[in-house]
Design goal:
Helix content of chain B: over 70%
Helix content of chain A: over 70%
Oligomer: heterodimer
Structural class of chain A: mainly alpha
Number of domains of chain A: 2
CATH superfamily of the largest domain in chain A: MetI-like
Strand content of chain B: under 5%
Strand order of the largest sheet of chain B: 1-2
CATH superfamily of one domain in chain B: MetI-like
Largest sheet of chain B: 2 strands, antiparallel
Number of strands of chain A: 2
CATH topology of one domain in chain B: MetI-like fold
Strand order of the largest sheet of chain A: 1-2
Largest interface: A-B, 42 and 39 residues
Order of helices and strands of chain A: HHHHEEHHHHHHHHH
CATH class of one domain in chain B: Mainly Alpha
Radius of gyration of chain A: 25 Å
Structural class of chain B: mainly alpha
């Protein structure tokens, strides 16, 4: 177990290192000179040179990258003497646009993204698994066909189209919901709920449809197993066979997919947050890309990759707990 | 189809492997689809959209309005450029209405947008399938270090937050040919999902009796891969690619919606939806038309892929 974990963590570190290197290479080497952008409109060649020195852009690529990695774990200093700026440990640099610490920007915006992700996850798990179970139990009936038809439709609608349609109907036309915004829970639970409701629904729809189809397929497969026939033969009620014998094997694979989807979402739901103007990590990514704010792009990519990779390991560990047939070697 | 083919392969040698079973499987799937109204309807809609895309120059010649022709007479400058007439300016000249402000014909832009969308999605599908099959089979067939390297590269690519990365790459790379760039970026991040499945299936196929029999009768690696393994991957490849196309259409539209995909003046559905955001409260048709086309296209492709899979699964079970 310990050896397995060590191996997984080493692999995880390697992948994150590669992501880091690749992202750094692309955004700092291939895109326009950040010093020129920071400098702005009233700019002198001396000022550009100065900025390049402070940021370490005049150094060769590998030592820049080394500085970035060191900064990530130990913090780093920009400039020298009176201009010295110390960036404490997890140092992701400063935004070229706002001069804010990128780490603080992420910490500020993560709660909004987490709220969106958690709310949507609750919604899609309830709706998706519920619909999938109902379809599987009533396989071949009107219920099954309707729900699966809806699931195909819901999976096909691009989330920004759904977002704009809902916004048109509910906010502009019927005026029963306010325009979504990142309202804090302390500003009133009702307003908070109303503001996040549409983002949750929009984000959850695609996943719910996918999960409904997966749940249905898994439950139908499980119901055909021999142990289910045994359970029914020994006289267990249908509800009890379902709850005690069918649900666990049918839903275990769903946890794997859920873990990965949820981890990916924590890194920001880019389109949903942008469409609704929610100030989360996803919108920060979109904004930073539009303004070519490299430290922020770098940080968001790294953050999202970390969530995905760590999520992957966590899912595998949880899976071995849920399904004893999977043995760790 | 796999259950019948192997035994025959084992007896008759590699030559007989590819013939017989697939043709009848194709006919059976087509037959099953013809009896399914949803599949027929989806196919009908897709044929319509493809025809619209192919005949775009012809139809715009008939209506007289190209995708970039401004029509000042169709919009009301006193109302800030809102289209004249009901439903976003639907008229005999503009069958699906006009864009607010500049009066470009929506039908023409939809048709030319479909060209771009389909071209990008199909090219991306071909490229991903090619990459996925080649690398997946290499990893699954040779295993060992080839598998190690390819699997690590796949892990690495799948760990990337692909949407953020696609947007970032597309926005930082110089303009150039956006469509080619989109295809490359989508494919680079797309192939591991296909390769993973191909790898797994190849690994199990390699150990099957009919492959061993072919190997024992002196077939080289090339013959094993192309005559024994690839034909058996066919049905899952068909299913995966048909389900990939709607995904890529959605991705292209999404990237164009976010402003990093196809750039003006080339029309694209995602771009049309993005520009309709500021107008949808006063001119909902401008949003509804590209939105519906995008939704129905993705839906049709998804339904079709789903039904093909169901038909293939039913065939394998029987």
């Amino acid at each position: 177990m310990a050896r397995y974990l060590a191996g997984r963590i080493a692999g995880l570190a390697l992948i994150l290192f590669m992501v880091c290197l690749f992202t750094y290479l692309i955004f700092f080497q291939l895109s326009p000179d950040p010093a020129v952008m920071i400098c702005g409109k009233t700019c002198t060649p001396e000022r550009i040179v100065q900025i390049r020195t402070i940021l370490g852009l005049d150094e060769p690529f590998l030592s820049q990258f080394r500085d970035f990695l060191v900064g990530l774990f130990a913090g780093r200093d920009y400039g020298s003497g009176a201009n010295l700026i110390h960036c404490p440990a997890p140092c992701l640099g400063y935004s070229f646009q706002t001069s804010q610490s990128v780490w603080e920007m992420i910490v500020d915006r993560l709660p909004v993204s987490a709220t969106v992700a958690v709310g949507a996850a609750v919604l899609w798990l309830l709706a998706g698994i519920g619909a999938g179970l109902l379809s599987a139990v009533k396989e071949g009936t009107w219920w099954d066909r309707t729900l699966m038809g809806l699931a195909l439709g819901g999976a096909s609608i691009p989330n920004y189209v759904l977002a704009l349609s809902l916004q048109y109907v509910l906010v502009v036309h019927l005026q029963i919901l306010p325009f979504p915004s990142a309202v804090a829970f302390s500003d009133g639970p009702v307003l908070w709920f109303q503001s996040y409701l549409m983002p949750w629904v929009v984000l959850a729809t695609g996943y719910a449809c996918l999960y409904a189809r997966l749940t249905r397929a898994n439950v139908i497969d499980t119901l055909a197993e021999n142990f289910m026939r045994t359970a029914r033969a020994k006289g267990l009620s249908p509800v009890l066979t379902m709850r005690r014998h069918a649900l666990r094997p049918a839903l275990t694979p769903i946890t794997t997919i859920f873990g990965m989807d949820f981890a990916a979402l924590l890194g920001g739901a880019l389109i949903t947050e942008t469409v609704f103007g929610l100030n989360g990590v996803g919108k920060m990514a979109a904004d930073s890309i539009a303004k070519n704010d490299q430290p922020v792009i770098m940080a968001v990519t790294l953050l999202a990759a970390t969530f995905v990779v760590v999520g992957n390991v966590v899912v595998d560990l949880v899976y071995t707990g849920l399904d004893p047939r999977v043995r760790i070697r | 189809m796999t259950t019948a083919a192997p035994s025959r392969d084992a007896k008759a040698g590699p030559e007989a492997g590819a013939t017989g079973a697939p043709a009848s499987a194709g006919r059976r799937i087509a037959g099953a689809l013809l009896h399914d109204w949803a599949a027929v309807l989806s196919t009908g809609f897709l044929i319509l959209v493809v025809l619209m895309a192919i005949c775009a120059p012809l139809i715009t010649a008939i209506t007289g309005y190209g995708p970039s022709d401004f029509d000042a007479a169709a919009v009301d400058s006193d109302l800030g450029g809102l289209p004249r007439g009901a439903f976003g300016g639907v008229s005999a000249e503009h069958w699906l209405g006009v864009e607010p402000q500049n009066g470009r014909d929506i039908l023409a832009r939809i048709m030319y947008g479909a060209r771009v969308s389909f071209l990008i999605a199909f090219s991306a599908t071909v490229l991903t399938t090619l990459l996925g099959v080649v690398f997946g089979m290499l990893a699954g067939f040779y295993q060992g270090w080839a598998d190690q390297v390819i699997s690590r590269v796949m892990d690495f690519l799948m760990a990337f937050p692909s949407l953020i990365f696609m947007i970032a790459i597309l926005s930082s790379l110089p303009a150039g040919n956006r469509s080619v760039l989109l295809v490359v970026v989508i494919s680079v991040f797309g192939w591991p999902y296909l390769a993973r499945v191909v790898r797994g299936q190849t690994m199990t196929l390699v150990n099957r009796e009919f492959v061993e029999a072919a190997r024992a009768s002196g077939a080289g690696a090339g013959a094993l891969v192309f005559k024994e393994i690839l034909p058996n991957l066919r049905s899952s490849l068909i299913v995966m690619t048909t389900l990939a196309v709607p995904g890529y259409i959605g991705t292209e539209a999404g990237l164009s919606f976010l402003g990093v995909g196809v750039t003006p003046p080339t029309p694209s559905w995602g771009q049309m939806i993005a520009s309709s955001v500021n107008w949808y409260a006063v001119d909902p048709m401008y949003f509804a038309v590209p939105g519906l086309f995008l939704f129905l296209t993705v839906l049709s492709l998804t339904v079709l892929g789903d039904r093909i899979r169901a038909a293939t699964d039913a065939g394998e079970a029987s």
